[in-house]
Amino acid sequence: MQVRHPGEMPHLTCRKAYLVTSVNAEGCHGPVYAIVTSDPSEAVDAVAASLGIEADRLSFAGFLSRRMAHHLGLKPNEVRLI
What is the top-level taxon of the source organism (predicted)? Predict the structure, then answer.
């Protein structure tokens, strides 16, 4: 029987559902998008790439609960308009 040591196990990344919103020149917030990634900056970059806009026009807005993310059927790196 082969024994696995903790150092040999692959590290799983912790993913969370983040909310990202667009911000216009006047500072008003636009639509809110949900995405499951490993950190907020990655979430902003992924939404920017998906929408074809610059990341500095987006802002991190908060988190989405695991229950709500599951209910919406969010998959990793899938951008969903909320």
Answer: Bacteria
Give the C-alpha separation, 41 to 24, whole Å: 19
Domain residue extents for the chain: 14-81
Phi, psi of 54 (to 5 degrees): -75, 145
Q: Could you tell me the pLDDT band of residue 6, with boundaries at 50, 70 and 90?
A: low
Q: What pLDDT sits at residue 26?
A: 81
In this prediction the pTM is: 0.78
Structure tokens, 21? 């919103």
- Two structure tokens written together for 32: 């809110």
Per the CB < 8 A criterion, the answer to whether 35 and 46 are in contact is yes
Cα separation of 20 and 37, whole Å? 12
CA 38 → CA 24, 42, 43, 57, distances in Å? Answer: 26, 7, 8, 21
Give the per-residue pLDDT at 2: 55
